[in-house]
Amino acid sequence: MINSITEEAIDPPAPPSCLAKGDVLRLLDFPKEFIVGHDTFAMTTSESLKGFRDIPPGTHFLWVQKPEPGPRCGYWYLTKLPGVVRVKQWDRFNEVLGEAASQFEVRMEEASVGTVYPLLKPYNLKEEEAPTPKRSSPTGLRAELSFMTDTAEMWRHLTGAISGPFLDRVTGKKGVSEWLVDSMDCVKGDSRLPVGLATASETYRTIVGSELQFLFSQDIQDLRILDQGPNADTTSRIVALINSGTIPVSEADIVAELQFVFVTGTHLGNTACLEYWWKLVLRIILRALQLSLQRPTLCRWLIRTLHAQLVYTDNNVEPLQQGNSNVSDGPSGDRLLFHSLRQSKTLLHSALVEYKSRINTLLLDLGNQITQEQKEVGYSFEDLEAWLWRCGWDLRKLADGGRRALLDDGDEDEDEDDFPVIVDIDEDGREVGLVSFHRD
């Protein structure tokens, strides 16, 4: 009889039916009046929050902040069906959301998930909390642009390339199911310790945060040293990284890096990630012109991701100063993303103008030899250009001071005519008679 009870006790229970819809994320001892962000929404807790339920398959990001301004910490995690129970506990001593105090706590939460399930916030709360888009979206959107009106599709465009192996590499945290990141995390080799403090790695991680390991850190430094101008094509650097064999790098990893630094930088206010995002976009991605010919799928993926990031910044991120947004001149410059680089809007506009001019020439020169994948690159950039047009940006010409801004950023000048060509624009902001690629 005793043996029978023992065997029953150690048999793993069947997964509760409530996990069929997705993961349950339990938050233990979570204080009131904290700010909690989960994927595309954020809320201030008016009562002790117990967690979230029905978290669908995919990549997710949870972050928290105390009521007063200060550092934020967050977790990246991946889910699939059937769901599992994840447990995080507020550490009052270190003031961080960390692991449960013991495995006993975890087992207890797993055993009682059916009871606590109705008390948890549903994942689809984001649909109720999503802010009204500031800029109107055109009607009759194609499937590729569904992220402009569908928050679930938006999140997929912001995080869809991020995988477990990628998170292992970029954070240096392996063998975990949730990857902790912090506002104080820095790029590997870029120590920000106070003067006089030892730089031992353990001390660095304890006092300042983890070191994030990015793929293009050295490439960006090399480009700065070589002082290569906007004509320098970075496609060879991207392709060489994918083909190097030193570390396994796929096209998805390139996109994942762009996605990771945007979400972590935007939601945690992580300076290192925001600075790296600008370097990655301005010095690597928007200079990789031949990528549209050699690896068009990757090129299109990067353009579409950039498009989603700019739309998300405009529509979902709170302004730093209320009432200080110039909606008639490009994306809203009062968002955190645009405050992390001097002359950021001018630099981005100028880089996109240069990119448009050269990518159009490359694709049009293909004539009848253009492939469907290469056409898709043109379509994706047209979509981005049309949205920017509605925001007030014209990519046919450099804005005042645009070339000067590129020079100030360490780039050489080009002997090129800056005067715009007068062309017709359709109602969606696309040029008539230049690059349309005629979607069938």
TrEMBL record:
CDD domains attached to this UniProt entry: Aar2_C, Aar2_N
Residues annotated as domain AAR2 C-terminal: 234-395
Boundaries of every AAR2 N-terminal domain copy: 22-172
Residue intervals passing through the bilayer: none
Annotated signal sequence range: none
An example Gene Ontology biological process: spliceosomal tri-snRNP complex assembly
Superkingdom of source: Eukaryota
Family statement drawn from the similarity comment of this UniProt entry: Belongs to the AAR2 family.
PANTHER family noted in UniProt: A1 CISTRON SPLICING FACTOR AAR2-RELATED, PROTEIN AAR2 HOMOLOG
Protein name: A1 cistron-splicing factor
Naturally occurring in which organism (per UniProt): Immersiella caudata
